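Re: weekly structure request thread

Next one in the queue (319 aa):
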Amino acid sequence: MFGFKSSLKNRRLKREDVLDVKLRSAQVRQTRLRVAAGILAFGASVFFVLLVIWRGGEWILDRFVLENDSFAIKRIEVETDGTLAPELVRKWAGVKVKDNLIALDLSRVKRDLELVPVIETAAVERLLPDTLRLRIVERVPLAQVFTVRPRPGATNGYQPVVYHLDTNGYIISPQAVRRTEPGASDFLPTVTGVNPAELQPGRRVESVQIHAALRLIEAFENSPMAGVVDLQHIDVSVPEMLRVRSGQGNDVTFGLNNIDQQLRRWRMVHDIGLKQHKSIATLDLSVSNNVPANFVELSVVPPVKAKPVKTSRAKKRNV
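Done, posted below.
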């Protein structure tokens, strides 16, 4: 009897414990659900507020800035250090009067301008409320290259084409540019022996020979030989050598390195010939010692051509 009563009592205690645990679990779940619902409601409220702010900001931006006639472009100023026509620069920029100045993508305009072969660098600036300023640095032709290309629109036949090279070896097509110095190209040295595949306007040539020829032309302008002879042709077809032909009939061979030193040696040999009333016919400066040289009588040497005065590259403003 006593054992049976004890068993009943234990069972009642166990059931009470189970009910108590179930009650606490339900309360925890309800509390979690209320917290989750509160978080979701708060998140939805924040999202709605942000959406309203975003849409409202877009409306304000469109209404008061992007569609505001006060920010319509009225003037496109062009500053250039060369001879480019302002109307060409405006065309290449792809910007029109009445375009919105604030909405304009300045990086796009800069990129488009610098893709033009004759432009080295471009700077684009907003001048609020209605002015766009374009500052252009043009590529300076240093040499010219003659080649032939298929005639456009023709099934056969070729036409002669001239390209210019700047100091960095970029190819310039001078036909696209209005030049104010007629005949200036006549005084540019001609580079021969160039692979026609390298002549792509707007791109930089990779040939080591061509870059050496450009360094020679640039160094020549400040060398002891400047004003003594004219550089007319530079042949780059022979590896590791530059074959130079001057307007005075000098055939001079250069190595690709130490060009300044070779120019000084050229002047030394030239002065030696003058003392004997002779002029250089051939000279090989690519060798270090015992420089081979041949001379002709000085009386048959043509004079140096007078070059035109270079136009100042100070910036010019056109509106």
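The helical segments are 2-66, 86-93, 106-114, 208-220, 259-275. DSSP finds five helices and 13 strands in the chain.
Next request, please.
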